[in-house]
């Protein structure tokens, strides 16, 4: 196992100077086996991949997360409610149900846009994508849970 760590150390030390082929060739000349060299390279690449994908700061410590969350959890439902109220006032004399349609369509568009935006930015901008995703999730789940509690209380009484 000592050879394995020697190989990894040699690769780390010379990686920025020489190509992979040159390093492998030199290690083969020194008597190391091809399988040990390949294992060391694979291990180093996996370690680098893990380090690159590890977030340097917590997602919730970022301002982007909280702005995106607030936009989807607080601001967009209010905007949809205001639009539904305006449409209701305008169509009061027509006796139609346009305000519910606006509310329903606005809610569906908000949920779909939240899912699509979070998928688009999932790998490139973690705080933004997670904020949009959780804001969208809580905007959807919170009213459903509230309605479930209210319906349960009403049917129990």
UniProtKB/TrEMBL annotation:
Superkingdom assignment? Bacteria
Q: Keywords for this entry?
A: Membrane, Transmembrane, Transmembrane helix
List residues traversing the bilayer. Answer: 65-87, 99-120, 132-154
Can you name this protein? Uncharacterized protein
């Amino acid at each position: 196992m000592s050879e394995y760590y020697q190989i990894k150390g040699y690769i780390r030390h010379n990686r920025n100077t020489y190509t992979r082929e040159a390093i492998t060739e030199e290690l083969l000349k020194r008597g190391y086996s091809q399988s040990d060299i390949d294992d060391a390279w694979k291990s180093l690449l996996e370690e680098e991949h893990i380090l690159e994908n590890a977030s340097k700061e917590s997602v919730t410590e970022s301002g982007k997360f909280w702005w995106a969350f607030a936009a989807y959890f607080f601001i967009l439902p209010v905007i949809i409610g205001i639009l539904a109220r305006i449409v209701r006032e305008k169509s009061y004399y027509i006796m139609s149900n346009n305000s519910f349609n606006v509310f329903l369509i606005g809610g569906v568009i908000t949920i779909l846009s939240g899912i699509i935006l979070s998928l688009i930015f999932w790998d490139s901008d973690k705080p933004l994508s997670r904020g949009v995703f959780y804001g969208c999730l809580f905007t959807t789940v919170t009213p459903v849970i509230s309605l479930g509690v209210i319906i349960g209380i009403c049917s129990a009484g």
